[in-house]
């Protein structure tokens, strides 16, 4: 239920008081906007004499967490009169965001419900005896080495039973890899981080189940919002991990206790191995990191290091085997090329180390550039050109390219024709009017941002049948509405710059036909 005036009265007055306190001197009108997403509250405020105001909204944010998500706005005049508006049907303001289809996802961003691999059916069968024997052997050897070094056995919790494993798997709806099952038969977690999995440790089984079932099943969920960049980069080595933002069948089972997490993958790509171990979290940028082919491989690497005397004993309960589980040398998935106008760009691209692994490029401060220069980067999926003079968008040789962001004085779009993979195009600050006709030939074009660019005929946007997400500036939105061209299939509309709640509500009606969205609105006067 949408809260009414009684629920919002105190919050509205507090917003107006905070706005007046932060507005300074010499103003006549001021505006405060709060975006409450359910997990966070963000603030934008300005007056007729200042573009940005610093407003204390800490106490207000705490009160908002007791109410459903919404965007709230107070417009205040110097005499103390204010108008309060709250709408849950507007995703954001300043910049504005309207979401018409909250279930829409970009390519590679699946909703929950991915088909379960046949081998992951939770049958309740006992752990494979050969795998069980190998894991028991490796963990026993580790425990012996640990005891030798530390003078006491590792303090592992008692292992789970086969019946307890089967019950946990039935709750999750997935069978764990055989070696992970065997590990839980040995120890229900490693809370003291004894080093059994190198720099990582496994969680208690009930934590694994709870984490799996919380929210959407599975793990990760990288950049699933419609306002995110959205391109999903591929894990190295290529072909082992499915290129997805999340997967129902990635099961988080541990980590390093520093906000990096391990998951077993029971739904690998064609070259991968069911049960391979992946890492994601605070220190993992871009794609998931491939850790090992299996939990058994991790145990083997740790035990091998101990046999060779390659370990560190830092004291307390810790024993650190010197392994490559975290130190595997990998080329970064992205590349930044700055001051491009001063460079011989073809030579720079040709000489990039591991260029076949580059999936993202930022090109900064180029003069005239033809994007064909990046053809040697066969895995390039996202290209961002910033502050260029002129760009010729010849991307026919960039078969993997999904996203192009171009900020330039002029852009020749002819080279985009019929590109099979491009689904995201952003054209920013283009001064020479753009002809968007060629975009009709792009079979996968899903998202288009044009804010701040000159467009000869904005009506061409309505001729893009696959377009689901559109970004414009306020002037472009008005021009498009004046043309009367419908866009019935939009999943989201973004409006750059400063917007107000009434403006965004009007746009929601214009684009989605909503006549009476849920709204709380009232006026009052500060004492």
UniProtKB/TrEMBL annotation:
<dbReference type="InterPro" id="IPR032675">
    <property type="entry name" value="LRR_dom_sf"/>
</dbReference>
<dbReference type="InterPro" id="IPR037883">
    <property type="entry name" value="Knr4/Smi1-like_sf"/>
</dbReference>
<dbReference type="Pfam" id="PF09346">
    <property type="entry name" value="SMI1_KNR4"/>
</dbReference>
<feature type="domain" description="Knr4/Smi1-like">
    <location>
        <begin position="159"/>
        <end position="301"/>
    </location>
</feature>
<dbReference type="InterPro" id="IPR051873">
    <property type="entry name" value="KNR4/SMI1_regulator"/>
</dbReference>
<protein>
    <submittedName>
        <fullName>SMI1/KNR4 family protein</fullName>
    </submittedName>
</protein>
<dbReference type="InterPro" id="IPR018958">
    <property type="entry name" value="Knr4/Smi1-like_dom"/>
</dbReference>
